[in-house]
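ok so I'm stuck.
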Amino acid sequence: MVKNKDIKLKKFGHSTILAVPTSIKPDNDYNVFQGRDGAIVYVPKHSNPFKDEEIIEKYRNHYQREEIGEHLLGKEL
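replied:
not stuck anymore, here's the structure
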């Protein structure tokens, strides 16, 4: 866990930069949003398996075995 550390906003052209302390080792890209209380939150990006073409293609024609019978009736899809 990283101890609290004060950081200051820095202007860089038309952008405002928040420095990441060296004790924090980011290993991913991040989504950022601002909470209602003004908190700035960075969340690691994760791929969405429902939009990942590789995963969709891998499981395109796979069907699960149903508990009540061998296969779906065909109307469920």
